[in-house]
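Running this now, will post back.
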Amino acid sequence: MSSPRIVITGMGLACALGHDLETITQKLNTQTHGFSHRKEYSGFKGSRISIGTEIPDFDTSSRYAEDWTSPNGHCLNKENLKALNPHCFYAYHAVTQALAHAQLSSLELGDETGLFTASAGSATNLRYNLNCLHERGVGRSSPHGVINSVVGTLSYNLSALFSITGAGCGFASACASSAHALGFAMDQIELGRQQRMIVVGAEDGDLDTILPFGSMHALSTSTDPDTASLPFDRRRNGFVGSGGASALVIESLESATARGAPILTELLGWGQGSDGHKPAKPHPEGIGLCQAMTLALKDADLTPTAIDHINAHATGTAIGDIVEAKAIHRIFKGHAGLSTASTKALTGHSLSMAGTLEISLEVLAQQAGFTPGTANLEEIDPNCACIHLPKDNALTRANIVMSNSSGFGGANVSIIFKHWSAE
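Update: finished.
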């Protein structure tokens, strides 16, 4: 019995580039970044960080969720909102958009649909709730203090809001989290356990989420938004942190065809591998990423020369970009037609949601008929020059794309997908 083919039928986004697919595609096509000066960063004690991102047309700055606003409004009641944090609020928008894109109503979900999510929880809510606990005591702290802050908050809030009763799980493998969620969601469909899956990555992207990386010297200290995020460039000195939400609806081709759903791309295979090295540094030879890419090719039954383009994890850190370039060269050596780029030059690094966000961006580019380059790549690091790194977008579509994601602890995921053309 052959395995079911798996396709993406819907996408929803709320990220540094915008909250509607048309605007995001346009910014991706014109290489318009989403960075700006953030006074709360530069004014923080001991901070050298001044550039960050925000989600256009959303306001989650109030301590009280009932005061939050979104571009299209929402029908969440006060009790719903008390259980949320900013990234759940963004994700509600993204999932609503993805379901509409996939031409699915909430009444069609139920136990035929599963939900896999990825986030690091809400550091701001956790800090606030713990401070209240210590200052006021157990009896005077919020009963919502756990459910609106811990890592699982995204999974159980979305499941409740959209009445999803199929498989449910939250993933936490640092910056590989949403890629892991998507890979295991593919397995759910391949094994016949679910007809469709909703996969969501989301992060608050606020000061409490981002600035701790400054203590690791991982954040860009540039004061110029135009040159703050420079993957693969010798001038890079760290990443720009970002947040938001990205949602994908994936389902079996049989299910999508039966209901006349729009088909955006076909998911061909995925792989994962671990470095087994250090908690915060990749293996110098990128062995986990090499394994992930190799297994993804095997799962998709493809040779390296079948890949047209790689969306690299490259965040703009000194070590990570070099290790990834070497790993790609090792697996794809001799493949002259392969291009590699990092869309983080425009979006920044969205941590747990990076995998699903970047796959979404590549699918949008496929739909529009271009292939992203790495914006602002003026001086390629000689240590990364072993792979082809175009700066400008190509005016042709990449048919088969691989997306890489890597996280702390040496977690690595590669996912391969193919532009859909009617058969």
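The first strand starts at residue 6 and ends at 14. More later if anyone needs it.
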